[in-house]
Structure formats: C-alpha cells, structure tokens
Amino acid sequence: MDAFSTSLVATTVSVAVLHTALGPDHWLPFIALSRARRWPLRRTLAITAACGLAHVASSVLLALAALGLGWEATRVAGVEAARGDLAAWLLVGFGFAYALWGLRRALRRRSDVHAHGGLPHVHRHGGVPHAHDVASPPARGAVWTLFIIFALGPCEPMIPLLVAPAGRGDWGAAGWSAALFSLVTVGTMVTLVWLATLGVARLPLKPLERWSHALAGATVALCGLAIITLGW
Fold first, then answer.
1. End-to-end CA distance of the chain, in Å?
2. 20 to 30 A Cα–Cα from 72, which one of 54, 120, 171, 213?
3. Burial tier of 207 (Cβ tally within 10 Å: 0-12, 13-18, 19+)
4. Three-class SS string for the chain?
5. Per-residue pLDDT averaged across 118-139, rounded?
6. Nearest to 162, CA basis, from 65, 17, 88, 50
7. Cα–Cα distance, 147 to 49 (Å, whole number)
8. What is the pTM of this model?
9. For residue range 50-92, what is the model confidence (pLDDT) as tens digits?
10. Does the structure show a pLDDT above 60 at 216?
C-alpha cells in the first residue's frame, strides 16, 4: 500500500467516526423514538442500520453521477448543502408534529385519569376496547419518515474522500474509500445507538413515561434545529 492509500484509509476512518459521533442527528433520534415506542433493541439497531445505509448510499450515488457528468467538487458540495437544508427542516417538521401528538396524548391520558378517580377506565363499543386516548401514529410511518429523511440527508465529508482518488484516475481507491466510509459510518451509528439504548434503559425514567412521545419528538426537532443553526 503506497503513502496515498495509507493516508486515504486513515483519513476515511477518522472522518467517518468523528462525523458520526459528533453529529447527534445520526443517533439521538433513534434512541429517543426507541424509548418512546418501546422498540426491542434488535429492531432499533436494524432501523438505525437501514437509515445509515440510505444516508451514505444517496451521497455515493450523487457523487458518482456528478463525476460521470464532469461536475466540479464545489458544485457537488452545493447540491449536498441544499439536500442538507431540506433534510434538516424535514427532521424539524417530523419532530415537531410528533411532539405535538405526544403532548396531546399525555394530556388526554392525564385528564382521563383525573376524570375516573385515578383509575384506568376503558369503554367498549360493540365489544371493542376504546380507551380515552389519541391513536398512536403507525410505527411504520415513523420508521419510513426517518428513512426518507436520512436518505435525503447528505454525507458531505465523504465527497472529497471519493473525489480525490477519482481525480487521479484511481477508481478502485475511490470505490473502496466510499465503501469503507459507509461501513464505518453505519457501524458507528449502530454502536452508539446500542450503547446509549442500554444506558438509557438503566435510568429511572418511569415518572416521565407519560411524556415519552412528546420528549422524543422534541429531541428529534432539536436535532434538526441544531443542524440548521450549528451546522452539525
């Protein structure tokens, strides 16, 4: 392995780890939603991995298409920035809507408990249980929304790591650099979500259980706002 390849490997791995670890939007939404929706750990990690793959794959495909069209790196970066803004605002919108639903659900549950003397109360309509509650958003809807947002979200640090070897005509190095960056990024996301989920499970959060959906939505929205204001 020559000096260029060695430097490319070291840079790719370090940038992928730092970019993922220092960007809470890469892992915090999964932790928050997993806790609120009580996803099993295996499902949480599978959803994280799928969203991570969509995140890196979209940028790889864009970079390859741009190189094929002869675009300069600055033009690719401009497209990635526009995608980043769109993904961030979608994250804010999804989080805000989810937080509002969670808040309404928590307040409705609280009013029902007060109305029935602090005892759980369920009505039956035609033999079907009907609680005084707000219907939960479909789990698949939340997952697909996250997936689409991550697919739209750019992975800017990967672009120069792919363009640099491609500019030298070394498409093999460009390919394995993109593959390595993708593998390390997804692996870091899954590892952080796994460790944090195990840690959160040990915290005494039972008093906040009723507000878990509202807090999860607020967390997702704040991640989007952090991207917009702080450039995460």
1. 33
2. 54
3. exposed
4. CCHHHHHHHHHHHHHHHHHHHCCHHHCHHHHHHHHHHCCCHHHHHHHHHHHHHHHHHHHHHHHHHHHHCCCCHHHHHHHHHHHHHHHHHHHHHHHHHHHHHHHHHHHHHHHHHHHCCCCCCEEEECCEEEECCCCCCCHHHHHHHHHHHHHHCCCCCHHHHHHHHHHCCCHHHHHHHHHHHHHHHHHHHHHHHHHHHHHHHCCCCHHHHHHHHHHHHHHHHHHHHHHHHHCC
5. 47
6. 65
7. 10
8. 0.82
9. 999 999 998 888 877 777 777 766 777 777 788 888 999 999 9
10. yes
Q: Does residue 170 contact residue 137 with C-beta atoms inside 8 Å? A: no
Q: Which residue has the tokens 């959060």?
A: 205
What single letter denotes the amino acid at residue 91? L
Token pair 């808040």 is found at: 103
Strands 122-125 vs 128-131: parallel, antiparallel or unpaired: antiparallel
